[in-house]
Design a protein that fits this description.
single chain; alpha+beta; 6-stranded mixed beta sheet; 7 helices; 14 strands
Length: 262
C-alpha cells in the first residue's frame, strides 16, 4: 500500500512550564522554526494560562491535555493543519488525570504526544512509571492494527543505551537508566518501531536533557530521553532527525523529525 503522506516537520519539546518558556522567547522560536506539528510536554498550565490566542494568530490549531493537579505535567499538540481526529488521554484514569497523552490523526498518520512519568521521586512513582510503560505499549499494539502509521513523540524519561547518557558507569540503579526501563525501549523497537535519531545518527552522542545542577549543560553532561519513534511502515519516509541543543528555554531542548513521501 502506498502511504498518502505529505512532507511534515514535527518537533517535540518538553518545555518544563509553557509560561516560563513563553517568557524566554518561545513564540519567537516557534515562528522561526514553524513546524507542521509541535508536541509539547510538561506544560504545567491549564488552557486559561497558555496564551492560546497567540498560537491562533500564528496559524496553529491545538489540542490540550492538562493535568488535574495545578502546575504539573500536561501535554499539548499544535498543528498548522486541523487534525482529522483528536483523542485526549490513553483511556486510563490514573494516567489521564495527569495529562499524559494526546493522539492526533492527519490522513493516514497518527501522531502520539506523550509525557512519560518520571520515577525519580521514589519507589511509588517508579511503580507508576512502570505501569504506564505497560499501558502505553498495549495501547500502541492495539492502535497499530487499525492505524499502522504511527509517530510516538515525547519525553520518555528513559535513556536506552550507554551512548545516550553521560558517564553511564555512574548511572547504574538510577531511574531513567534502569535495566527494566531500557529493556522496555528494546521491546518497543522489537515490536515494530524505529528510534529515528539513532537510525539516522548511529554512533553520534546527542543529549536532550541536562540537570540544572553543577553546570551540567555547560559541561554537556546530559541524557537523551526525548524521542520520535516511528512505526516500521514509515521507515522509508524518515528524512531528517536531529536535536536542537542550542535552545535554552528549558532543561530539555527540542528534537526534530522530518518525514516525506516516497
Amino acid at each position: 500500500m502506498i502511504l498518502k503522506l505529505k512532507t511534515m516537520k514535527i518537533i517535540s519539546f518538553n518545555v518544563n512550564g509553557i509560561r516560563s518558556a513563553i517568557n524566554k522567547g518561545f513564540f519567537e522560536w516557534l515562528e522561526k522554526n514553524r513546524p507542521d506539528v509541535l508536541c509539547v510536554q510538561e506544560i504545567k498550565a491549564d488552557t486559561s494560562q497558555m496564551e492560546l490566542n497567540r498560537f491562533e494568530e500564528v496559524g496553529y490549531h491545538y489540542a490540550i491535555n492538562p493535568a488535574e493537579k495545578k502546575g504539573y505535567s500536561g501535554v499539548a499538540t499544535f498543528s498548522l493543519s486541523k487534525p482529522d481526529f483528536v483523542e485526549i488521554g490513553i483511556g486510563n484514569t490514573e494516567f489521564d488525570k495527569e495529562g499524559r497523552l494526546i493522539r492526533t490523526d492527519f490522513g493516514e498518520l497518527s501522531i502520539i504526544n506523550s509525557y512519560f512519568p518520571s520515577g525519580t521521586m521514589g519507589d511509588v512513582r517508579q511503580d507508576v512509571k512502570m505501569r504506564y510503560l505497560d499501558e502505553i505499549f498495549d495501547y500502541l499494539q492495539k492502535l497499530k492494527k487499525q492505524r499502522p502509521n504511527i509517530i510516538l513523540s515525547g519525553d520518555f524519561n528513559i535513556c536506552h543505551e550507554e551512548i545516550d547518557i553521560s558517564n553511564p558507569q555512574n548511572k547504574k540503579g538510577v531511574s531513567g537508566f534502569l535495566p527494566e526501563e531500557r529493556a522496555w525501549i528494546t521491546k518497543l523497537l522489537n515490536s515494530g518501531f524505529i528510534d529515528t535519531y539513532r537510525f539516522l545518527n548511529p554512533g553520534v552522542v546527542g543529549y536532550s536533557w541536562w540537570s540544572y545542577r553543577a553546570g551540567a549543560r555547560a559541561k554537556n553532561l546530559g541524557w537523551r530521553i526525548d524521542y520520535h519513534m516511528v512505526s516500521l511502515p514509515l521507515k522509508e519516509n524518515i528524512k531528517t532527525a536531529f536535536i536542537q541543543a542550542d535552545v535554552y528555554m528549558s532543561d530539555h531542548c527540542p528534537i526534530f523529525l522530518e518525514i516525506e513521501p516516497k
